[in-house]
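Box 3.1 A note on notation
Throughout this textbook, protein chains are presented in two layers. The first layer is the amino acid sequence; the second is a token string describing backbone geometry. Keep the layers aligned when reading.
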Amino acid sequence: MTLPLTYLGHPLLRQTAQTVTVSEIQELAFQELVAQLLITLTSSNGVGIAAPQVGQSLQLIIVASHPNPRYPHAPAMDPVVMINPWIVHHSQQVEKGWEGCLSVPGQRGLVPRYESISVEYLTPRGSQEQRVFNGFVARIIQHECDHLQGLFFLDRMEPWDQPISEGEYRGMNNQLNPLDLSLSDPR
């Protein structure tokens, strides 16, 4: 079942999400939420989703990069469910890239993010993992982790950058090489 999305302006999206305990992970209701989040993500043509985006104040994200109409050049990967994700290390290199958000429909923004991150999280089985992610997938994780802290990609944009419409972004996307959609930032 697809869950209804929560949009910019809803107060829950500006709150810090609650930590999930190992006993909560094992509950059937939590496992069903994970399955419904994945269905919602897929049906919305997203590449990542956070529980607050469906009205659940929980430290839970799913990252599932794949080419789709919203992100035609996204790399394909199996979905990764992250509970209580924590970025424990990041590269010094920052890269600007275009982001959109299921909770901010119709808008895109140029956002600086770390090129590489190491993330510690719990799996749906309750075990702890730590993995390194790079490039577009690292960007997705940082975006979704922001949702768990009550932040949007709009909050991360530099003051002189302005969001653009989804239509304008698609027009740019059709004219540029996919590799040109990220801009290196030497910081």
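The first strand starts at residue 48 and ends at 50. The CA atoms of residues 40 and 107 lie 19 Å apart.
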